[in-house]
Design a protein that fits this description.
Organism: Sulfuriferula nivalis
Number of strands: 0
Protein name: Tetratricopeptide repeat protein
Structural class: mainly alpha
Strand content: under 5%
Shape: globular
Number of helices: 8
InterPro entries: TPR-like_helical_dom_sf (IPR011990)
C-alpha cells in the first residue's frame, strides 16, 4: 500500500488572532487548507494522485512529483509529497533537501530569518504560544524536527543536535516531541545496559 501523497490533520485549532497575529492569519488559513490539498491546481492534484498510484514504480512516481513541483513549487502539498516519497523510499539525503527548502520557504512566509539558527523564541510567531501553535508555526517546527531527524539518520549528529536544541528552544513545552530526539542523541554510543 502506498502512503498518501499528502495529508495533514492538525490536532490543534488555529489560535484566535490578536494584534501581532493578524499578519499571519491569512497565511495560516492558506497553509492549513494547502496541506489538505486546498488551492491546489487540478493538474498538480492529478500529478500527486498519479505519483501515489504509481508509488511502487520509483521513476514513474518521481517523475510525476517533479512535474508537480515544476507546476507548483511553492505549494506545501507538493513539498510534503516529495518529502514523503523520498523518506519512505529511504532516500534520506533527498528528503533532507526538500525539508531544508521547505524550512526556508516557511521562514520567509512567517517573516522569520531564513537561517534557522537565528530564529528566536521571542519572535511573535512563537512568543506566548507554547501551549498551542497555529498551523504555520507548527509546520515550521515539524519541518525543523524533520531536518533534525534526517541529519541524525544520515550520521550528521552535530547538525542534528543543533537542530534539536533549536526545536526545544522554540517549543519549550515539548508539544512536537523534540525531547524524544534529544533522548536518542543522549543514548548515542551507549549500550542498552548503560545508565
Amino acid at each position: 500500500m502506498s502512503p498518501p501523497a499528502f495529508s495533514q490533520h492538525p490536532d490543534t485549532p488555529p489560535l484566535p488572532m490578536s494584534g501581532d497575529d493578524v499578519a499571519l492569519g491569512g497565511f495560516d488559513e492558506w497553509l492549513d487548507s494547502a496541506c489538505l490539498g486546498g488551492d491546489l491546481p487540478p493538474a498538480v492534484a492529478a500529478d500527486l494522485q498519479s505519483a501515489a498510484d504509481n508509488y511502487r514504480f520509483d521513476e514513474v512516481a518521481e517523475s510525476y512529483l517533479v512535474q508537480a513541483y515544476a507546476r507548483a513549487p511553492d505549494h506545501p502539498a507538493v513539498h510534503i509529497a516529495l518529502y514523503r516519497f523520498y523518506f519512505y523510499k529511504n532516500r534520506l539525503s533527498e528528503a533532507l533537501v526538500v525539508a531544508q527548502r521547505c524550512l526556508t520557504k516557511t521562514a520567509v512566509d512567517l517573516g522569520l530569518p531564513t537561517d534557522w539558527q537565528k530564529v528566536a523564541p521571542d519572535h511573535v510567531v512563537f512568543a506566548g504560544h507554547a501551549e498551542s501553535y497555529a498551523p504555520a508555526p507548527r509546520f515550521y517546527l515539524f519541518t525543523l524536527k524533520g531536518c533534525a531527524y534526517l541529519n541524525m539518520r544520515l550520521g550528521n549528529l552535530d547538525q542534528g543536535r543543533a537542530l534539536v536544541a533549536k526545536l526545544q528552544t522554540l517549543d519549550p513545552t515539548n508539544k512536537l516531541g523534540g525531547a524524544v530526539l534529544q533522548g536518542i542523541l543522549d543514548r548515542v554510543g551507549k549500550n542498552d545496559d548503560d545508565d
